[in-house]
Amino acid sequence: MAAIEFKNVTKKFGNHVVIENINLKIKDGSFTVLVGPSGCGKTTLLRMIAGIGPQTSGQVLIDGNDVTEIAPGKRGVAMVFQNYAIYPTMNVRDNIEFGLKNNKIPKEERDILVKEASEKVGLEEYLDRKPSTLSGGQRQRVALARAMVKKPSVFLMDEPLSNLDAKLRVQMRVELIELHKKLQTTFVYVTHDQVEAMSMADTVILMNNGFIQQIAAPEEIYRNPANLFTARFIGSPAMNIVELNDGIRLGFRPERGILSDEADPKADFSVEGQVVTREMLGRETTYSVRDPQGRTYMVTGLDDPYKVDDKVYLNVSLKHIYFFGKDEQRIYEEDAQQYQACLEALRRGL
Ligand SMILES: Nc1ncnc2c1ncn2[C@@H]1O[C@H](COP(=O)(O)OP(=O)(O)O)[C@@H](O)[C@H]1O
Ligand SMILES: [Mg+2]
Prior knowledge:
Layout: E1 4-13, E2 16-26, E3 31-35, H1 42-50, E4 57-62, E5 65-66, E6 77-80, H2 92-102, H3 107-120, H4 136-148, E7 154-158, H5 166-183, E8 186-191, H6 194-200, E9 203-208, E10 211-216, H7 218-223, H8 228-233, E11 240-243, E12 249-252, E13 258-260, E14 269-280, E15 285-290, E16 296-301, E17 311-316, E18 322-324, E19 330-331, H9 336-348
Parallel strand pairs: 3-8, 3-9, 6-7, 7-8
Antiparallel strand pairs: 1-2, 1-4, 4-5, 9-10, 11-12, 12-18, 13-17, 14-15, 14-17, 15-16, 18-19
Helix pairs in contact: 2-3, 2-4, 3-4
The site of magnesium ion has 3 residues, from helix 1.
């Protein structure tokens, strides 16, 4: 187990600043997921922990020790990539113990480690098979087992599931959660997929353009986004965002919009519109509704009373409305003066 800390860390490639002065603590034993759009600096951050792409300035600490001068192999970290480089000509056992042989670990110890790791990922029956005879998920487990035999105190994973099909990805997510529980080791997992982040993490670190936007538990980041970027990035369909006056924006989640045939005089936010699309997804239905000004809103619900072209009213109550200021930061109820301005903007309407 190990805690990781970034202190004033900056990373540049030439003049291009990719990470700017990041401060960050990753808790010992946590399942931390770094999430953000492609190109925001996730892999760069992970590589700094691994020691395969050192920071330009600042410090990276593992368990309180500055690891800047410590070689990748001596940091107690193991990395699993999207393109898990398993050797096609070697069987599963040889793949798993490859690194151990290189490190001159004696045969009996290797056997124990391989047995332990293959059991943890459910590959004990497959040790003599060639990778070509395995499914994508099983191959990914070989890569995990190969990382596990090194007994790392930190697992670093860079989009390890993105080559798998949708169904297998869901299954592997559950397996990774279980693996984390069994190993109780720090996991730092990188993905651009917010669903993956939300489903596995105990802590989500949301990044954009080399900056940290928010660090929080999944439910917290969903219910309490700190800024407009977070509000838009987390959740699918995305939060509805509407511009009011004075640069103030209002947001509400699709499941908090209530459709009705009549205007609801008690609703704090209400617009008239027309159903443009209807997606019946089994358990719930997603409508898109367009108002006379051409703004489109997404609304999800368990009921399915409307069809395309129906005229509807969309109503939202204040307790489900988020406000964001000109600077795109959240305006909380505690900021009494600013919040009052938001309520006035809401009263004036669209
Ligand atoms: N070796 C490199 N040389 C120059 N630029 C790089 C290098 N690696 C990454 N970058 C740039 O750094 C930024 C962040 O990249 P990366 O960390 O790979 O993003 P992510 O993993 O979030 O998709 C991108 O703009 C990318 O082009
Ligand atoms: Mg990447």
